[in-house]
Amino acid sequence: MPVYNFKNMAPVPSANDLVDIVLTRTQRRTPTVVHPGYKISRIRSFYMRKIKFTQQTISDRLTAMLTSFPRLSDIHPFYSDLCNTLYDRDHYKLALGQINTAKTLVDAVARDMVRMVKYGDSLYRCKCLKRAALGRMCTILKRQKASLSYLEEVRKHMSRLPALDPNTRTLLMCGLPNVGKSSFMNKITRANVDVQPYAFTTKSLFVGHTDYKYLRWQVIDTPGILDHSLEERNTIEMQAITALAHLTCSVLYFMDISEQCGYTIESQCNLFRSIAPLFANKQLVVVINKIDVQPWETLEEEKRRMIEELVKESGPNTTLLTMSNVSEEGVSAVKNTACDKLLAARVDSRVSGNKVESVMNRLQVVFPTARDGIVREACIPESVSKERERMAMQSSNKSKKKKGSRIGYAPTVEDEEEEDDTPSESEDEMMDGEAGNSGRKKTARELMWENGGPGVWAPDYREQYDLADPEWRFDAIPQILDGKNIADYVDPDIEEKLRVLEEEEEQLQAEYEAANMEKMDDDSLDEMEKVAVGEIRDRIKIIRQYKERPGGNNRPVLPREIRGRTKDKHDEDAKLSADAIEKRMEKYGVDASKMVERGRKREREDPRVRRRAERAAAADKEMEDAAANDSDEEMQDGRGLSKGAIKRAKKEREQSVKREKSLARSHSRPREPSQMGLKDESMAKIAKKVESKGQMRWHGGKGEGDHTQSVHLVKWMNTGKKRNGTHYCR
Amino acid sequence: MPQHEHMERHRKLHGRRFDAEERDRKRTARLAHKRSEFAQKVHGLRAKLYNQRRFKEKATMRKTIAQHNERSNKHANDEAVADGAVPAYLLDREGVSRAKVLSNTVKQKRKEKAGKWEVPIPKVKPVADDEMFKVMRTGSKKNKAWKRVVTKCTFVGDNYTRKAPKYERFIRPTGLRMKRANVTHPELKTSFQLDILVVKKNPSSDLYTNLGVLIKGMIIEVNVSDLGLVTTSGKVAWGKMAQVTNNPELDGCVNAVLLV
Ligand SMILES: Nc1nc2c(ncn2[C@@H]2O[C@H](COP(=O)(O)OP(=O)(O)O)[C@@H](O)[C@H]2O)c(=O)[nH]1
Ligand SMILES: [Mg+2]
């Protein structure tokens, strides 16, 4: 579900500000020093960069603006209609459209001017062109003054729209002005809406929240609606209409029976009838307000009938309630009824929807079938039933009408009937029961109060210790013994641990013996071999130690490409040179010439060429396979592939043949993508060189963008003798 | 949560602080001093921009003051109107001061004295060949230098066909070709973007005329059929002369005034 938050739209700068922003950014983010003595290509690129940078900045800013404003077709219909009434959809779209056009215009200007700069033959000309380009782009921006200021106003207003969720549980108040909608809103929420005794105090939608049944309810206060046709309604009323039309909610239609609001009951009924179509599919409560001034019962018979008829004709889904904001009579009843109705409707719609099906399918209630006819009742201990009896006696003594005690028990169906009228009494009795009977076990809390309250007496938890010998319970255990915390030496699993340790030791013993047996076999080696084995073992040990030496890998590592493949005396981990490899292998008595040869070969050939050759070989193999498949197509028909697949393959083959014929160009393999636009091998070489040069720059060489001021060494200050004052006296 | 006009609402509910008006008054009084302080301190590009803006503000201020004063200025010569009974058809006449009449006639005369064929820019600055053309060296050894590239903007007609590139002596780069001009109508004080039809003679050289080089002061013919102008004989004019008023190669566009 999308959450409508228009609060995080970035401010839209005014046209003048936008120009300032863009030009300042260009000035600060592009190099600023250029001289007529520079190579012309450098001068050109200097100015082209300025133009392109400006264009980029502008289009970035404008794109950000365009994306941050919501598209009216994408948001919830309620919001899009609200935007329509508040900001006028056409105007809104026009403004955004103009911004978009401005963006494309700026792009076009930049493209044209960059093209002109390419033919610039002097610094002056390039500069003039740049100036013209920036000027034209800024003019385009300045033309958007009206759109930009409009959009800024819209943004400001949107950011202050109430955060209203169109999909949640909602109560919506409507009615003529001054009938007490806002007062009711203030009663049930903390929205703090302005209430004044004149019409149109509330000029826009207000949102508040209230709680009912542990759920959060959104309450919407609307401006008053007058009874006239839709065309005549103004922006303020249209907001209320929009809310009514698009939100699925429980509607409270307010009526003022005291007629203090300045409208007769008849005109209020008329308004109800004229907006009745908007109440379709909604839960409707007609609220009769201000009964503190004019009670419902003493209302003139005629008017009362009028209202009752109105409710009747609007369908069975409508409820009539009376209320007063001043005496707070019926306020919560109205809220509860509206909430209940909406909740029931929402649950209904959920259940009737097809989504619930999948959940319902999985639900199953199983009743166990009776094994036999014996009735098995709950087993109540005798003491309990006795106690109950006693209690019943006591209570019946106190008040004859009481049926039974409920202390400690959840309310039952029979009890519930009486619960409402005598809650205070039953509480009284509970207190009495506690104090009165001595047969029941006292709780620790009671004991505490008896013995002086909290802080004076606390229960002794040692009583409840479950030890092998109950006598041990109250034994004193010191915390520190001989300067040691005895808790550190208590280990309930000590026996288990000891057993495990012993087992392990036994196993080790056995292994050691087995190894010793093998050692006996080692003796078959002669002296020389033994020495060699010892040497190998020593070497392994050294290598292992070297690897595990502290400070192992925690230092900057050069990538291999940069480090080079040859041995580096500062870095033992680098790859070995051919000589070193040969020498080392010789030490182990292995002939390394082949290995070195292979390495050389691999190094000589270009890795790309090698990979291509491998790929070509693979492709050739595939082709052969395909050809073979073609030839024995009939044979293959019966096997492996499905009929459809075979047909498809055949069709494809035919089509490819056709395509081949229709092509004018030969179907040779296309060139490497990196060499696509280049004439021949030599051009490719040059391109590669240039590219690598560019990359060198990337590695941190100084470029035009690096704005540095080197120390200017003045010759007369820095040359010559510096002793005996001659330095200053020249 | 504040909704809608929460600031105004707060003010309505709780009022403003007791010295709000006093603070406002002081702030506006201080503004001039703050401005002057800033103007004295600022330097560099910021100063330039600031002064430009201030200048504009002051100019508009002066203008509005003058406008207000104008009401008290006496343009009409009230004494010239005869006292007493005046026939109805003379009632709304005002006496016009002599000075006004004189100045108007002087202006009129000056306008008439100017020749009919006077153009806004009287002279086309002569352009030397080596400014106009860049030598392009050709041949595999780059030792031939007979080709020329035009460095100014040019107008190339729609139906122009290139010669074979190899033998083309003058190259007019496509990037510098102009098709349309921004033409200002001096009387309507509006500008239109119009197609260029022909480039008229360039006094410096026939060659430039043939190449259709566009430089400041040149006369061009533009397509005004969209404007719906009518000639004295009643026909709809579709081609009209205009003079180029800028250096197109420096501005990247052709600006011109219509000669009427
Ligand atoms: N006597 C009485 N006055 C009420 C009651 N509810 C609202 N009012 C008054 O009616 C006026 C308009 O109330 P308001 O809530 O602004 O009406 P809204 O325009 O429908 O929002 C205020 O002066 C309230 O004090 C009510 O139950 N009894
Ligand atoms: Mg209100």
UniProtKB/TrEMBL annotation, chain A:
<dbReference type="InterPro" id="IPR041623">
    <property type="entry name" value="NOG1_N"/>
</dbReference>
<feature type="compositionally biased region" description="Basic and acidic residues">
    <location>
        <begin position="651"/>
        <end position="663"/>
    </location>
</feature>
<feature type="compositionally biased region" description="Basic and acidic residues">
    <location>
        <begin position="558"/>
        <end position="621"/>
    </location>
</feature>
<dbReference type="GO" id="GO:0005525">
    <property type="term" value="F:GTP binding"/>
</dbReference>
<dbReference type="InterPro" id="IPR012973">
    <property type="entry name" value="NOG_C"/>
</dbReference>
<dbReference type="GO" id="GO:0042254">
    <property type="term" value="P:ribosome biogenesis"/>
</dbReference>
<feature type="region of interest" description="Disordered">
    <location>
        <begin position="385"/>
        <end position="441"/>
    </location>
</feature>
<feature type="compositionally biased region" description="Acidic residues">
    <location>
        <begin position="622"/>
        <end position="635"/>
    </location>
</feature>
<dbReference type="Pfam" id="PF08155">
    <property type="entry name" value="NOGCT"/>
</dbReference>
<dbReference type="InterPro" id="IPR027417">
    <property type="entry name" value="P-loop_NTPase"/>
</dbReference>
<dbReference type="InterPro" id="IPR031167">
    <property type="entry name" value="G_OBG"/>
</dbReference>
<feature type="region of interest" description="Disordered">
    <location>
        <begin position="547"/>
        <end position="710"/>
    </location>
</feature>
<feature type="compositionally biased region" description="Acidic residues">
    <location>
        <begin position="413"/>
        <end position="432"/>
    </location>
</feature>
<keyword id="KW-0690">Ribosome biogenesis</keyword>
<keyword id="KW-0539">Nucleus</keyword>
<feature type="domain" description="OBG-type G">
    <location>
        <begin position="169"/>
        <end position="343"/>
    </location>
</feature>
<feature type="coiled-coil region">
    <location>
        <begin position="491"/>
        <end position="518"/>
    </location>
</feature>
<dbReference type="InterPro" id="IPR006073">
    <property type="entry name" value="GTP-bd"/>
</dbReference>
<dbReference type="InterPro" id="IPR024926">
    <property type="entry name" value="NOG1"/>
</dbReference>
<protein>
    <recommendedName>
        <fullName>OBG-type G domain-containing protein</fullName>
    </recommendedName>
</protein>
<keyword id="KW-0175">Coiled coil</keyword>
<dbReference type="GO" id="GO:0005730">
    <property type="term" value="C:nucleolus"/>
</dbReference>
TrEMBL record, chain B:
<feature type="region of interest" description="Disordered">
    <location>
        <begin position="1"/>
        <end position="27"/>
    </location>
</feature>
<comment type="subunit">
    <text>Component of the pre-66S ribosomal particle.</text>
</comment>
<dbReference type="InterPro" id="IPR022309">
    <property type="entry name" value="Ribosomal_Se8/biogenesis_NSA2"/>
</dbReference>
<comment type="similarity">
    <text>Belongs to the eukaryotic ribosomal protein eS8 family. Ribosome biogenesis protein NSA2 subfamily.</text>
</comment>
<dbReference type="GO" id="GO:0006364">
    <property type="term" value="P:rRNA processing"/>
</dbReference>
<protein>
    <recommendedName>
        <fullName>Ribosome biogenesis protein NSA2 homolog</fullName>
    </recommendedName>
</protein>
<dbReference type="InterPro" id="IPR039411">
    <property type="entry name" value="NSA2_fam"/>
</dbReference>
<keyword id="KW-0539">Nucleus</keyword>
<dbReference type="GO" id="GO:0005730">
    <property type="term" value="C:nucleolus"/>
</dbReference>
<dbReference type="GO" id="GO:0030684">
    <property type="term" value="C:preribosome"/>
</dbReference>
<dbReference type="Pfam" id="PF01201">
    <property type="entry name" value="Ribosomal_S8e"/>
</dbReference>
<comment type="function">
    <text>Involved in the biogenesis of the 60S ribosomal subunit. May play a part in the quality control of pre-60S particles.</text>
</comment>
<keyword id="KW-0698">rRNA processing</keyword>
<feature type="compositionally biased region" description="Basic and acidic residues">
    <location>
        <begin position="16"/>
        <end position="25"/>
    </location>
</feature>
<keyword id="KW-0687">Ribonucleoprotein</keyword>
<keyword id="KW-0690">Ribosome biogenesis</keyword>
<dbReference type="GO" id="GO:0042273">
    <property type="term" value="P:ribosomal large subunit biogenesis"/>
</dbReference>
